[in-house]
Amino acid sequence: MQSLCTAVIAISSIRVAIGLTALAAAGGIYAPARGFHQDAIRIPMLILGGLGAVINLAVLARVWRLRARASAGWRRREITAKERRSERLQLALALLTLVLIGAESWTHSMVHRTGPPPTQTHSG
Fold first, then answer.
1. Long-range contacts of 102-106 (CB under 8 A, 24+ apart)
2. What share of the chain is helix, strand, coil (3-state, %, to 5)?
3. Do 104 and 46 contact (CB within 8 A), yes or no?
4. N or C end of the chain, less CB within 10 A?
């Protein structure tokens, strides 16, 4: 279980680095991003980010469930402050990732003017 937790933390760090790099690249541009923002790259990255966040949440839930079991009482030890902060950070980043994916999916067509054109209504 410890190796799995280490892998999840390493993958999360890579995800954060990719996100910060993308934010820095788009920070000084006033026009919509081209190249990396095309659907062939954007959609798989959204899917991978969402899967990573869901896996992080599942691993955290499993760890908390295993710790709470009565049969784990004999090996239970107090969680250090560093471990508690790490778990909270993982939870916050996973939830933030899901919120940002939802926001990006919802606003993408508005910002980049994709999708069907708005319908015009004529007032009588």
1. 104/46, 105/46
2. 75, 0, 25
3. yes
4. C
Give per-residue pLDDT as tens, 81-95.
999 999 999 999 999
Distance CA 33, CA 120 (A): 28
Q: Encoding tokens for residue 4?
A: 């799995």
> Residue 104: what pLDDT?
84
Nearest to 93 by CA among 83, 85, 81: 85
DSSP 38-69: SHHHHHHHHHHHHHHHHHHHHHHHHHHHHHHS
Residues 54-73: pLDDT tens digits?
999 999 999 888 888 878 77
Q: What is the DSSP letter of 75?
A: G
Angle between helices 39-68 and 2-27 (to 10 degrees): 150
